[in-house]
Amino acid sequence: MTIAPALSVVVPVFNEQDNVAPLLDEILAALRGNALLGDGGFEVVYVDDHSRDATLATLQRLRAATPELRVLHHAVQSGQSTAIRNGVKAARGAWVATLDGDGQNDPADIPKLLAQRAQAAPEVKLFAGWRVQRMDSGSKRWASKWANAIRARLLRDATPDTGCGIKLFERAAFLELPYFDHMHRYLPALMQRAGWQTVSVPVNHRHRGSGVSKYNNLGRALVGIGDLRGVAWLIRRSKRTAVEELP
Fold this sequence. Notes:
- This is Glycosyltransferase.
- The protein is built from eight helices and seven strands, in the order E-H-E-H-E-H-E-H-E-H-E-H-H-E-H.
- The protein has helices at 20-31, 55-65, 80-90, 110-118, 138-155, 171-175, 187-193, 217-236; strands at residues 7-13, 42-48, 69-73, 95-98, 124-131, 167-170, 197-203.
């Protein structure tokens, strides 16, 4: 019988042909033989969002030489949130770590998140990366600063950086959250809405290795306005209560 891995690492990618192999090597270096994973080990689930370059071909080549690697492919480009959700649904680990596929997140920070989980209360279901020193352009840092300030005021999620791609969360808790496009930007607020606690952990942030960003400030802002209103509505309409089964 196949033993389920202790951790699944989910990486969504779109047109990242030059970043796939270096990032995978770093994931393997960070997690192979890591004592925090016990005997379960780990798997890496790449989700190709219908790339138009050689990303999928590169993943297929790497898969032949990497037993931990699994590859999913979207028949139609569907966006990062859908890629993450499909990766989590396919994951076999009880806990999932996510990374952006552009190489700006550092896989060496995954053990740091695992160490935080080991000493946290059971009620903490999400450990969110916090990019203390951003390596993005000045305009992108400025836009992110204002977006985080507005989000914090509306959602009161006490999270300094929800846009960081590196996160660690319980798979079952994630799959109970309401799904919508761009939901990955609001995971702390959604987890707290579900009754769980979240913790922000300082992590490394790096310059993009190659390729170009798939987002621009204006597009992110326009989408974010509607998303913020929707998430705020979800929080206002949420009701939770303890449930007891009678003997």
